[in-house]
Fold:
Amino acid sequence: MTASTNTATSGWPVSRVAKFDAMKEDESLEIPSYGIVIIGAGVSGLYQLYKSREIGVSALVLESGTDVGGTWYWNRYPGARFDSESYSYGYSFSQELLDEWDWQERFSAQPENLRYLQHVSNRFSLSEDIRFESIVTECIFDETCDEWEVHVEDGFRVRCRFLVTAIGILSKPLIPDFEGMDDFKGPSFHTARWPHDEVTFEGKRVGVIGTGATAVQLIQEVAKTSKQLTIFQRSPNWCAPLHNSPIESTEMADIRSRYDDIFERCRNSFSGFIHDSDRRRALEVSPEEREALYEELYASPGFGIWIGNFRDVLVDEQANATLTDFIAQKIRERVADPKLAEKLIPTDHGFGTRRVPMESGYYEVYNQENVLLVDLNETPIEKITTDGIQCSDREHPFDLIVYATGFDAVMGPFNSINFRGLNGRTLAGKWEAGPRTYLGLATAGFPNMFTLVGPHNASTFCNMPRCIEQNVEWVSTFIEQLFSSDIRRVDVEFEAEDDWTEHVHESAERMLFSKVDSWFMGVNKNIAGRDARTFMLYVGGLPRYTELCDEVARDSYRGFVTS
Ligand code: NA7
Structure:
């Protein structure tokens, strides 16, 4: 075991990973103790473990899956892939990693993404400090000694000075409670719980419920081989072409030589992508000039059409309408049946005001003979039957049903764990009316706890790894200072939390996101009581967020109280 023996931090206990098995069997052994416990071994958890070792603090990761990878471990449905350019998604912290990993595609698919994270884990022997198949159920702050006690479903317990959540915001799958779901005699599963064994569609009648980013990716794959594909749509989404392509070795060599520039560009862009908004406004240029940029971006790879567009299209309704009309026209051109095209065009929100699913031939799928769209507003699902799905007008028979119904986003992963802070207060209770945080990294009354990619954190509206590196580095520097100053407890001042939460809401108000129901706004039609809009993300932009976090650090961690 190469793990984190902590010599730098005043005798803090060393890592005891090797004793796991003995501990599970011998109840009389004391609870193992670490400097940091990290929940989750996805992109953020893996880097937090790496950094914890670097700052010399013992760390243990608790991961519910059987392997590393987080999002890329769970979401193995066919079609799952990045919508970030692959070379802008990988970690930037290690030159060795950058030198030895070749991306094969501009927008890499899930199997390669998982292999990359496994490679990172192997490269730094990270799994030696990861306890797999560990579903964390409860985290209780012990005020008598300023430690967290973390409980795992199988009975394992561990204590730590600092608790770092790396649980993601789209990790709690949500299947609506349809009547008769257990009656269906064929296989059925949620996209984020896709079986590890290969699932084929050839010759099968497949039903897919949902038309979000996940469904859009999956549908294009299922349509290729299935005998019949039926898509159940409650609300259409605005989709845009991904334009994926292979990366040849010469192009990879060129990318490698430009990594510094690429990461610098991401750091300086609003949301950590290589795309950043055009400085012009849609409404100040001529219609021809406007159209020309829309055409160029529609024909270009990635999110440029969304976040590399005129700077007013996501803040001004009139500007947004010009883009929305352009995309609607594209859909009409691509779908042969005009009535069907209209069903695929959203009418309740403008382009880009919700997450934009990226596609490679999604609209053309609807021109295939074997594909049927069921509009659930006309013929709602009544129940799941032994043979398929019963809608108000007829029964659709299936061999396989896929729930592409999304997640209990942002709050779900936090609500799945019983976090108890000062005076036994629960986090679920505190955040009942919406999250309240400081920098999206901590919350008052829950001392010694940091929330990577938490609500109100720039990483929630970001090319994730770019913001994750910022989060992890900031938290690690802070923890290192706390240890070296022998500070046992750090909490957030309520005033700092109020100010940050207000700043988050103010930043959102100027964006059109805040005018639309979506998981960005905490709205979920499948969850009772989740109909009020409260902004879950942070849209002040990565450069501003980084600057604000750095300012707090420079100002002796203003807004935090230590003891
Ligand atoms: P999303 O974007 O939340 O999409 C879920 C889809 O499932 C969406 O079309 C929903 O329709 C639909 N849905 C949910 N419940 C139902 C019921 N009860 N009946 C019919 N249809 C339903 O999740 P994704 O997994 O696609 O994407 C999540 C994020 O992952 C995405 O934003 C990317 O960042 C990656 P609705 O719109 O609610 O009417």
Observations:
- The CA atoms of residues 325 and 351 lie 9 Å apart.
- The radius of gyration is 24 Å.
